[in-house]
């Protein structure tokens, strides 16, 4: 929010907030930085192991199923749906933040409900995918899929897949919990009493971060 | 708790300024478009094998970074914050450049060393197994006794 700032503002000469945001939002940014490095470490270690392997299972073979389509070969379709759901819920989250700027309680609540539904849909998709893969014999320490070149694959593939998507799914879950709390506080009128909806913005930052991580998980596991 | 809003220094009027929703939808279409382009490329590659995989991987990485930029800049609103805040996030994030290059290069070097010195490893990699028709049909001799299933 950098409006109405005079040109040539001296930020560091004292008497001003150099970042021009409130404390909680700044700390949310720093928390997200640390979380980004946690996810980065996961994904980069996955990449390192993949670079150190001569061959690796083909994601288009592993992730080819879609609910209710039987054994049809549909690579990328299901994960595209998941990506779409998450991007969509990110949009409704920004719309909730925008409604918060107007101080429109009903609108904030409406968009928060949509965001929560999006999060739950994503979690449902992930639950289905995990169940499906588990049914095929994949789990931590078990890998039924062969490498692209036809040789036996190590369990690195499944270990990384379940750990990283699990960690991301846990973030989605906690994001949904935070959003539910924000929805309750909105409906109770807590933010109207406080005079601003900055808490919605902080929850929004977390929610977008979850979407951001998914962009990288999607590329690393399903496309590369 | 964390609701310590310093009303004297933070520009409070801006917290009530109208939030333009037009860029949100524009960002949404950009993100959707990029994702569809990625899927189209992947599908074309599956059907024809035309764009070679390593070219495609580079394209995916660039497109992914573009998506990340739009999410951070518009959805997380970082582009509209003051420069100090942008820098305190962007500068530490540059560590990722070193992080990714150093570790991926390390993995690659390990693969080359192992292929050169570990004959058993190379053999294992060249041994084809029957495709998974029956569950666990090819009982490979290398399996350790007592391993699950």
UniProtKB/TrEMBL annotation, chain A:
An example Gene Ontology molecular-function term: cytochrome-c oxidase activity
Domain Heme-copper oxidase subunit III family profile: 1-224
Domain of life: Bacteria
One Pfam entry name: COX3
Record flagged with keyword Transmembrane helix: yes
Any one biological process term the GO annotation gives: aerobic electron transport chain
Topology versus the membrane: Multi-pass membrane protein
TM segment ranges: 26-49, 76-97, 109-130, 160-184, 205-223
Keyword Repressor included in the entry's annotation: no
Subcellular location: Cell membrane
Similarity-based family: Belongs to the cytochrome c oxidase subunit 3 family.
Record-given protein name: Bb3-type cytochrome oxidase subunit IV
Cellular component GO terms held in the UniProt record: plasma membrane
Primary subcellular site in the record, as a coarse category: membrane
Organism listed in the record: Puia dinghuensis
Keywords: Cell membrane, Membrane, Transmembrane, Transmembrane helix
Lineage: Bacteria, Pseudomonadati, Bacteroidota, Chitinophagia, Chitinophagales
From TrEMBL, chain B:
Region Disordered: start-end pairs: 126-149
Keyword list, A-Z: Cell membrane, Membrane, Transmembrane, Transmembrane helix
Top-rank taxon: Bacteria
InterPro entries for the chain: Cyt_c_oxidase_su4_prok
Heme among keywords: no
A Pfam family it matches: COX4_pro
Subcellular location: Cell membrane
GO terms for cellular component: plasma membrane
Residues that span the membrane, as ranges: 24-42, 54-73, 85-105
Membrane topology, from the record: Multi-pass membrane protein
Primary subcellular site in the record, as a coarse category: membrane
Protein name, as recorded: Cytochrome C oxidase subunit IV
The species this protein was found in: Puia dinghuensis
């Amino acid at each position: 929010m950098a409006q109405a700032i005079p040109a040539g503002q001296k930020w560091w000469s004292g008497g001003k907030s150099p970042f021009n945001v409130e404390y909680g939002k700044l700390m949310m940014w720093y928390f997200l930085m640390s979380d980004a490095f946690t996810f980065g470490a996961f994904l980069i270690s996955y990449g390192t192991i993949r670079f150190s392997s001569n061959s690796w299972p083909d994601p288009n073979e592993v992730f080819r199923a879609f609910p209710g389509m039987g054994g049809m070969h549909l690579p990328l379709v299901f994960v595209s749906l998941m990506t779409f759901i998450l991007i969509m819920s990110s949009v409704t989250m920004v719309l909730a933040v925008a409604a918060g700027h107007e101080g429109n309680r009903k609108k904030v609540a409406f968009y928060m409900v949509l965001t929560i539904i999006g999060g739950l849909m994503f979690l449902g998709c992930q639950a289905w995918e995990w169940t499906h893969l588990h049914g095929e014999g994949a789990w931590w320490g078990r890998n039924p899929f062969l490498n692209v070149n036809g040789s036996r694959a190590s369990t690195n593939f499944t270990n990384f897949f379940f750990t990283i998507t699990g960690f991301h799914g846990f973030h989605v879950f906690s994001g949904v919990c935070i959003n539910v709390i924000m929805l309750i506080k909105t409906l109770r009128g807590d933010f109207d009493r406080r005079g601003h909806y900055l808490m919605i913005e902080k929850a929004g930052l977390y929610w977008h971060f979850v979407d951001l991580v998914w962009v990288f998980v999607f590329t690393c596991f399903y496309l590369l | 708790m964390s609701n310590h809003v310093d009303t004297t220094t933070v520009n409070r009027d801006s917290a009530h300024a109208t939030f333009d929703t037009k860029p949100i939808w524009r960002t949404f279409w950009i993100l959707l478009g990029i994702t569809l382009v990625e899927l189209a490329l992947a599908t074309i590659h599956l059907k024809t094998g035309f764009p070679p995989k390593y070219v495609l991987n580079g394209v995916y990485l660039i497109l992914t970074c573009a998506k990340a930029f739009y999410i951070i800049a518009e959805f997380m609103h970082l582009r509209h914050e003051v420069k100090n805040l942008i820098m305190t996030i962007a500068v530490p994030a540059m560590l990722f450049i070193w992080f990714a290059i150093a570790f991926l290069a390390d993995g690659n070097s390990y693969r080359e060393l192992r292929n050169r010195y570990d004959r058993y490893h190379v053999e294992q990699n060249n041994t084809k197994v029957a495709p998974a028709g029956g569950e666990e049909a090819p009982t490979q001799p290398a399996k350790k006794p007592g391993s699950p299933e």
